[in-house]
Amino acid sequence: MKLVGPWLSGYTRRVGITLRLLTLPFEHLPYHAYREPERVRVFSPMARVPALQLDDGQVLVDSHAIVDYLDSIVPADQRLMPASGPERVRAMQLVGYACACYDKLARYCDELMLRPEAHRLAHLQAGYREQMESGLRVLEAAHADPWLIGSRISQADIMAVVAFQSASVVIPRTVNSESFPRLAALAQQAMQFTAFSSTLPDLEDLQASGLIGADNGI
Ligand SMILES: N[C@@H](CCC(=O)N[C@@H](CS)C(=O)NCC(=O)O)C(=O)O
């Protein structure tokens, strides 16, 4: 399989973590959707990442569909989403919040990075941040023991950690281990897995994106 997208993309990282936790071999093609759209388009006509090319040449896009597919090709006891019942509902709820947090963070970053300052809408930026922080508070209130859905790591942990770590790079004064101690502890626990530690965005990539502390201390 080939995974298209850089670790800078939280949704690509979600898929990369999933592949590594499930010990599924893959080739990583870290093409950036904005900087290298023509390379991404070869796999993903809308120039969006992540895209996963399967061994038979078919391509899946959208991290939700991809992680669902990956769960379907591993034995039941390795799957990263509970199959049914209240645990599945809870996992879906938390994955939903974590993805929504990441969406708002991505929109906030797009506003900062792509739109010229004179055309930025302050209320939009503030709204994205407010919504993202509300979502992170929901995740912070979810009790991890030791994982969000109990004894086994799940997609809820993966996306919660991706969203928290990404937000803490972009708006470190607001999102940090003091304001979100449980999410910080969850991230620290997750980083014991190479699936998480090996998929952190390159520092160079982060610096080039201008996203480190992009809030300028706001
Ligand atoms: N819902 C999609 C979101 C994918 C997404 O937003 N990808 C971003 C990078 S993190 C992207 O490719 N943006 C460029 C674009 O949409 O034009 C998923 O879960 O995969």
Explained architecture:
The structure is a single chain. This protein is mostly helical and 218 residues long. The protein folds into two domains: 77 residues, Glutaredoxin, CATH 3.40.30; 125 residues, Up-down Bundle (Glutathione S-transferase Yfyf (Class Pi), Chain A, domain 2). β1, α1 and β2 form a beta-alpha-beta unit. α1 runs parallel beside α3 and α1 packs antiparallel against α6. The longest helix has 30 residues. It starts with a strand and ends in a 9-residue tail after the last helix. Glutathione binds next to α1 and α3.
How is this structure best summarized?
With 218 residues, the chain is mainly alpha-helical.
Give the amount of beta strand, in percent.
Answer: 5-15%
Radius of gyration: 17 Å
Helix/strand class? mainly alpha
Number of strands: 4
Uncertain runs with pLDDT below 50, 5 residues or more? none
CATH architecture of the largest domain: Up-down Bundle
For the largest sheet, list the strands in their spatial order: 2-1-3-4
The level of helicity is 40-55%
CATH topology of the largest domain: Glutathione S-transferase Yfyf (Class Pi), Chain A, domain 2
